[in-house]
Amino acid sequence: MTNKVALMEFEGNANIGLFFFVNDKFAILGKQVDEKKKKEIENVLDVPVYTLQVLSTDLIGVFLSGNNDILLSPQLYEHELKQLEEICSKHDMKLIQIEDKLNTLGNNICVGDEEILINSNYSRQFKDHIKKATNLKVIELNHSEFSSAGAVCTFVKGKYYVSQELNEEMVKDFIDKIAGVGSINSGSPFVASGIVANNNGILIGSLSSTVEIQEVVENLDYL
C-alpha cells in the first residue's frame, strides 16, 4: 500500500500535533473539527477518528502519549475517562492514568516500542512508576531548553524523527533508531507539533518548507 502524505492546519494553526493522538489503530482529535476535515484525516491515516476533549480542551496531543499498545493520560474528568476507556477497550489498548504536576504527558513523553523518552524534570518516583506501569525502558532527555521529549521527538514506523536542537550525546541511548533530524513548520524545533503519522500516512504542518517536507517524507519512508 502506498503511504499518503498531506499538508494540514486547523483554523490557520499549522501546529497540528497539539490536537492529535494517532497510532496504527485509531486517531483521537479535539472536538473542534468539521466533518470534511475529519474525512480527509481518515483518508490519509486510514484509521477511525474519534473526537473528544481532554481536561475540557482540544489539546489532545499535549496531554496524551502512547504507542499501539498503551495510552498515557493525566487524571481525567469522569466523562472523558469513560470515553477514553471505551476507545481503548475497543482497540485492545491499555489506558494508564498518571497523576503529576507535569501533566502534559504528550508534550513531555514520547513512547516508542521498546523505550519511553521522558522529560528529565520528572521526579524519580514518577520515572519508577512509569517504568513499572509500561514495562518499557525509560530514557531521560536532558536539555536546558528542549527536554520536552514529546515535543522534540516523534515516533513512527519503529523510528524517531528528532529536533535538530538535540546533539549526539543527548540521543546516544536511542541513536540507532533515529531516522532523521530536522525542523518543521519553517524552522520550529518542536517536530512533533507538525508531524502526525502512522504506518499508513502522514500529515505535515502546512507552514513546513519544501526542504522540511522532503526530509521528513524521505527519512520516515513515506515515498
Span between N and C termini?
A: 11 Å
- Look at the structure and give the CATH class: Alpha Beta
Assess the beta-strand content as a share of residues: 25-35%
Number of strands: 15
Strand order of the largest sheet: 1-15-14
Query: Can you identify the CATH superfamily?
Result: L-arginine/glycine Amidinotransferase, Chain A
Roughly how much helix do the residues carry, as a percent range? Answer: 25-40%
CATH topology: L-arginine/glycine Amidinotransferase, Chain A
Characterize the structure shown.
- The structure is a single chain.
- With 223 residues, the chain is an alpha/beta fold.
- The chain has one domain (4-219): 5-stranded Propeller (L-arginine/glycine Amidinotransferase, Chain A), CATH 3.75.10.
- The chain is built from seven helices and 15 strands.
- The chain has helices at 35-45, 60-63, 78-90, 105-108, 124-134, 149-152, 210-219, and strands at residues 4-8, 20-22, 27-29, 49-51, 65-66, 70-74, 94-98, 109-111, 115-119, 137-141, 153-156, 159-163, 178-182, 195-197, 201-205.
- Strand 14 (195-197) and strand 15 form a beta hairpin.
- The longest helix is centred in the middle third of the chain and has 13 residues, at 78-90.
- The radius of gyration is 16 Å and the shape is globular.
- It starts with a strand and ends with a helix.
- The mean pLDDT is 95.
